[in-house]
Amino acid sequence: MYRIAVAGNPNSGKTCLFNQLTGSSQRVGNYPGVTVEFVIGESRFEKEKVQIIDLPGTYSLTAYSQEELVARNYVVEEQPDVIVNVVDASNLERNLYLTAQLLELRVPVVIALNMVDVAEKKGHSIDVAMLSAILGVEVVKTVAHRATGINDLKDACLKTIRNNIIPKPLTYTHELGLVLPQLESVIAADTEFCGRFPTRWVALKLLEDDEVILAKLKGHQHTEKRAEIEDVLSRAKTKIHAHSNEDPATAVAEARYGFAGGAAREVTRLSETGRRFLTDSIDRIVCNRFLGPIILAAVVFVLFTVVFRCANAEWLPLLHGEWISPTGIVVLLFDGLSHLATTYIPIPVLQSLICDGLIGGVGGVMEFVPLIFFMFLFIAMLEDSGYIARIAFIMDRALRAFGLQGKSVLAMIVSGGLGAGGN
Ligand code: BGO
């Protein structure tokens, strides 16, 4: 039985495509040792029985989040026969950033170029043959929610598996080209260190200070070999810094952005009737290097204001023409409980335990529920609008300086909002 893994950015149509490939035969499981869930299904491609695994939706394959670790470990350790990388054709550049990292893993990949209907509405026509030539893998146009291109995708998967099509190594920037061969050769000479991972990928991860790969290096049994790799790595980092004036992790990320941007520009043509679509213009503004962060600050300000108002302003009708806030309802409820406990519990110690300890403690926490509810409601609306994905994209470079990723901004917004709400 062939095993196929489906990978892609969130909102690229991955679930939709997975459902089209598997029909109704699905079950949910957990990756060993982690809480990240996956869905697994079975199907037939021609006469071949296939098992299809839906990997977590990710923008990248770093070691920062469990989802990304799970996705990359699955690809390397389980070695599925082919990875179907779902790429949103209407946001090609952003999606190709993940593609570049899958190709770095030198595993068989087929691109499902999804949402081509949206791209065409924007006036974008994508040259599939050219994209396939640049990436060195099969590329198939799909419109997942209408099941368009699914049979072609199945054929491309079988072709890739049967012909064992492995993507060529990507060529990145001049600076990386200067240091990668030596780093790769010292890694390749050492079969014990990161045995299953491709050497080019391990070299890039070392330059990126990837925690997992660095930990493997630190735990290396042979101190001489470890010292040799560390020495070559340190010289490679110095060289990159001298050539680009950037830290190596940023240089690697920039190289991938460069590859993704270059490939997207090369294969995308504005059709003759192509008008600049509204979202395209919005993207240009909200993803702009300078305007993006200012707009983000404004959006966060509005988000906090609306969330606090919804949770704390008195807009719900109470009795006798009075109004109350959602937080006020929770306070009222727990005050009522406390009042009941004071009235009906005669023993002072027990009364204090119930009123101050139990009701007071739980009530204090429950007061946050309206705030949390509205925070997540509005964050979900932002996610649906596609703005969260854009925040992750525009903040990625800036946050890398602190060892974080663009999407960490979301956690900062939520925790900042809840923290501020608590004061
Ligand atoms: C909703 N074309 C278009 N136009 N839309 C697509 C395509 C495509 O090729 N493929 C998927 N979609 P997921 P992830 C929705 O759910 O598979 C749509 O995160 C809605 N839902 O139908 O969930 C797909 O798994 C209400 O849209 O993505 C889905 O990768 C109104 O893209 C969305 C409009 O697909 C995300 C859309 C209640």
> What is the subunit arrangement here?
single chain
Range of strand content: 5-15%
The first-to-last residue Cα distance is: 57 Å
Which strand order does the major sheet show? 2-3-4-1-5-6-8
What's the shape? globular
Mean pLDDT: 86
Would you tell me the structural class of the helices and strands?
Answer: alpha/beta
Helix content, binned percent: 55-70%
Low-confidence stretches: none
Largest sheet at a glance?
7 strands, mixed
Which ligands appear in the coordinates? Answer: 3'-O-(N-methylanthraniloyl)guanosine-5'-diphosphate
Radius of gyration: 26 Å
Separate helix tally: 18
One letter per element, helices H and strands E, the order comes to: EHEEEHEHEHEHEHHHHHHEHHEEHHHHH
- Total DSSP E strands: 11
Attribute tags:
423 residues; alpha/beta; 7-stranded mixed β-sheet; two-stranded antiparallel ribbon; 59% helix; binds 3'-O-(N-methylanthraniloyl)guanosine-5'-diphosphate
Give a written overview of the molecule.
The protein is α/β, with parallel strands linked by helices and 423 residues long. 59% of the residues lie in helices and 13% in strands. The chain is built from 18 helices and eleven strands. Strands 2-3-4-1-5-6-8 form a seven-stranded mixed sheet, sandwiched between helices. A two-stranded antiparallel ribbon has the order 7-9. Helix 3 links the parallel strand 5 (82-88) and strand 6. Helix 13 (291-312) packs antiparallel against helix 16 (369-385). The relative contact order is 0.09. It binds 3'-O-(N-methylanthraniloyl)guanosine-5'-diphosphate. The site of 3'-O-(N-methylanthraniloyl)guanosine-5'-diphosphate has 16 residues, from helix 1 and helix 4.
